[in-house]
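seq/struct pair 1
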Amino acid sequence: MAEGMLAMSAVERERLVLITEASVGRLSQGLVAERLGIGVRQVKRLVRAYREHGDVGLVSRQRGRGSNHQLAAGIGDRVRDLLCGKYRDFGPTLAAENLAEREGIVISRETIRQLQVELGVWKPKARRHKKVFQLRERRPRFGELIQIDGSPHDWFEGRGPRCTLIVFIDDATGRLTALQFAPAETTHAYLAALKTHVLAHGCPLAFYSDRHGIFRVNAKDAVSGDGKTEFGRVAARLTIEAIHALTPQAKGRVERANQTLQDRLVREMRLEGIASIAQAQAFVPAFMARWNAKFAVAPRDGADAHRAWTGGPEGLGEALARREERTLSKALTFSVGGRLYCVRTKGPGTALRGVKVTLYHFMDGQMQARYKNRTLALTRVGSLPIPSPAEDEKTIDARIDAIVLAAKAAPATSSLGCG
């Protein structure tokens, strides 16, 4: 008896006293079950084990044995090596997914987390007291509201230049609808993502963005123009409402997606050895499919709110084209972007002197001049000096990177000033 008592834990000793009382009938099995917090059937089994084996019958048979879920020695060592090397800065969830997909080792996320803590390669983030924002309920239908944002980041971790990822995510489902890598966050980059979205899904009802100058005219004293940016004009042509958030928290879905992409996408591109925008863009479709399979949810209303686009790629290219007006001189010339063009005509062309033509700047770099639905033939006849473009906080990194690359490529020359 003393030997059995010494081998028992405090819980088991307490259980022994109550089971002993139940086995001799001094306590009912229902009362013992209530005190121990177990079922009556379990009490019956314990009483039977006590009568057959005495104190030993109440000692757990798992004591001294290894866990049924412990890793085999070889597998455990391999996992530890991978967590310290190839997947060193991966979070537990992402590491578990890649171990299963790439290494064929299926381990739970919690086991990975415990191993990372043991190896000292992962620490939970300190929790901060954050301001509480009331959550807005998701929109009911896919395509009612698309949140859009740009995420400048070192996406290639030094293997390539810093760049920006344009993110389109549906509010109702959390589904990524377009990812577009670009050197900087520009109107052209957003239009490229918009083109991808429309060709794949149609036109959404509304876009939800921040108040950057790409989306909204912020000048308080603006008295000329139509009050829209180039992106705003394209959205209007496609009958897409533009909504601007007052705070970053208001468009939290795309903000949180940016954080997760900077974690997951960066590491997956590292494993694939991706080091350029072209390679990253080719990788995007497969990544989006996996993301949407894992994170997207079903909308409350199964109806799709997108309006189908029937104009085809050519019609969409025209809708996305930037437009501006120019007045032809007496010589039928006009200037744009530091270049001088002349309209070619079969006759004298006097009817075109002083008329206003509309220039269409297409996303592929081509330009057309149109007058009364007629495309005019053009000849470039010269160039004009143009000032250096102004940069903002969203394009300055790309500009500096280009300057640095040019400086590295230039041959070393001596000068009186800078060497």
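seq/struct pair 2
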Amino acid sequence: MPVRKLKPNTNSQRQYSIDDFSDITTKKPEKSLLVTKKKNSGRNSQGKITIRQRGGGVKQKYRLVDFKMLSGVYEVKTIEYDPNRTARIALCQNEEGKKIYILAPEGLRVGKVIKFGEEASVSRGHRCALKDLPVGTLIYNIELRPGQGGKMVRSAGASAQLLAKEGELVQVKLPSGEIRKVAKECFASVGVVSNADHQNIKIGKAGRVRKMGRRPQVLGKSMNPVDHPHGGGEGHGSIGRHPKTPWGAPALGLKTRKAKNPSSKFIVRRRKTKKRGK
């Protein structure tokens, strides 16, 4: 998927780039797999804001994507855009007429037959248990627990690699560099998630961000001392302390994972972290 730059008719379009949607085969989604997406503007069930700077945005419909794909043989009918995720989705249909949406891998084409479960082979888009895949296979949409549905590696251009098999567990290297053990009965799809050039798109102007449902953010050092730990001072000088959240908790580098987290025993190597400023 190449990225297209616009002719700059306005100042805001000088760094503006968009997706050319050349891989999309239809603009009309399957109505039976659409549901209403209610907006909460970053608020929880009690009406309290839990995520700041959220609200507005264009109206969207949620596509019911099947992340389990446990069995069956399907034919790819269309490749579609999904406003709720960075990757493309594919509409598939089996011989009985059942239709499902799946995460489309890179290189998937209309008319291809994909298989899930015991009938699957090591081919792009097919999905089977990790125990049935050879070491070194690139995979995505990986389950954490058998039958739960894919939870890991679902964003555009992402892929993990099957490193080793040890008894009832297998080792998977995630895009972050973390090596994690997963049950061999867990399912995963073969290939790389589609729309890898998504990371090269430049937003270009503030109005485009507002359409995504994100409201303006204000730096803490631009606030008053009563509103933020970074507030006060003269101009935009240094904050003079370690970065903190608006509620005074340490930020940027503080490890928040619980020391006695039960799932820590499945992590062979922690993810790689980049130092600030590099």
